[in-house]
Amino acid sequence: MVSRLARASAVLALGLAPVSFPAAHAATPEDALDPDADIGPDSGRGGSGGDCGPAECAETPSEDELLDADGDGFPLAEDCDDTDPTIHPGAVEHCDGVDQDCDGDVDQMSFATLYHGATVQNVTQDLLPSVFGDTKLYEVPTGATLNICPGIWPTRISAYAGSSVVGIGGRDQVVLDGGGNSWGFAANNYLGGTNTIKGLTIANSNTAIVSVVKLLVEDVRLEPHVRGIDYRDATGARQLEVVDSIFDGDHGWRLPGSSPPWGILADGGTVLIEGSLFTNLGSLPPSQLSAGAIVMTDGVLEVSASDFIDNWGTHAGAIHTSHSAVSIDGSYFSGNQSNRAGAVSLSSLTAPATLSDSDFVCNVGPGSLISGGYSFESGAVFLSGPHQLTMSAVSFGGGPLVNYPWDFNSPLDHEQQWPGSTVSLTCTHAGGCS
Ligand SMILES: [Ca+2]
Ligand SMILES: [Ca+2]
Ligand SMILES: [Ca+2]
To answer: 59 lies in which domain range?
Structure first.
């Protein structure tokens, strides 16, 4: 979590410090080809450094050193990449993790590059507000890629169809600060294609990401005050894929006037989660939030290799699904709380569901922290409505009552109540699981 002080300081820096760029062509091709231009005891050239004798220093560049394979006017001896004519001393730096101007630094801080068709454009100033303390809304054109270099940007982004926004240096280096506005990132994908968000922290917005149709979220950290990803209003071929990302709600009830934070709220479409962390999301009753980390209705949810820690909700602490197809694999649930299912609540499954290779430790249904509740609550997994569920290699922590009050529960005789329903359980620990 970026502290508010650090955030303010960085915004100040962005607002007041002029962004500098390398002077165009500090060296010319003629300079580079001049055998005397750079030769001397301190040049370091030719591997002899400051120790070269008069005879060595008088040597002219070899034939190989004078070759200019990429034709940019700078020979091999001067060119840090003689295979790419856009890279040479004095070239314009792009925000891309590559050292274009051969000065040894891959990028300058706090600048941004837009790649749109054949155009490469420095858009740094377009991402910054004209008034200090304000927040800028920047629109990424259809099909374009926006690269953002390290810094804390007072910027919100509206990304059109098939566009990508990439933080160079990753989510710990590049922060979009939404300034407390209603949303931080909107994927306006009504023309088709897949939008990509990668390598960013999206902070200080009511909703971090909204209005998506087809979206890949990778290496992203969301610090939602209310919502992480709102996936309800999109239309068309919807798929949300979340990879290697972090949803940290910081339990927003601690913020005066704030609603409880959730991770992903989805209605329809397909949501794929892989290698991600959901933590400190949701709130305890009387919250209206049905689950802290993921709520899925009328869709497909596939979760793999992800962690759900200390999330709170009314139906489930971590995941609540209704009328959906669900698979959960290789995941870990701990410290989640609810007044029905501490970790996972599956209601009215629409396809055979699987829960495999996952651990449930110290999740809590109705407990001392929660008043009221149901008579059929469960600490880890709760099942209701028609269902065909297979659980395999599921661990409930290796001892009785590791999840409170039971590890697994279904409220009534499910096969009588919902003909055709089946539950197959193969658990490494069988407390409440038979
Ligand atoms: Ca060259
Ligand atoms: Ca660069
Ligand atoms: Ca450079």
So the answer is: 25-91
Helix-, strand-, coil-residue percentages of the chain, each rounded to 5 = 10, 35, 55
In terms of C-beta density within 10 A (0-12 exposed, 13-18 middle, 19 or more buried), how is residue 134 classed?
exposed
How far apart (Å, rounded) are the C-alpha atoms in residues 240 and 189? 12
Going by DSSP bridges, is the β-strand pair 270-274/239-243 parallel, antiparallel, or unpaired? parallel
62: amino acid identity, one letter: S
Q: Which ligand is nearest to the CA of 21?
A: 3
Question: Considering Cα of 87, then 88, then 92, then 93, what sign does the dihedral take?
Answer: positive
Claim to verify: residue 186 and residue 287 sit in the same structural domain = yes
- Give dist(CA 177, CA 179) in Å, integer: 6
Ligand nearest to the CA of residue 149, numbered in listed order: 2
- Residues of the chain scoring pLDDT < 50: 1-50, 253-255, 367-375, 412-413, 427-434
Domains held by the chain: number:
2
Q: Flag whether 5 is in a domain.
A: no
Pair 280, 263: CB distance under 8 Å: no
CB atoms within 10 A of CB 102: 18
What tokens appear for 21 in the block? 């760029």
Q: Which ligand is nearest to the CA of 88?
A: 1
C-alpha 162 – ligand 2 centre gap (Å): 24
Give tens-digit pLDDT for 153-176.
999 999 998 999 999 999 999 999
Q: Is cis: bond before 405, omega within 30 of 0?
A: yes
pLDDT in tens, 177-224: 999 888 999 987 666 788 999 999 999 888 899 877 789 999 999 986
Q: What separation in Å is there between the alpha carbon of 239 and the centre of ligand 2?
A: 32
Domain co-membership, 53 together with 154? no
Token pair of 81 as six digits: 């990449």
- Model-wide pTM > 0.85: no
Ligand nearest to the CA of 72: 1
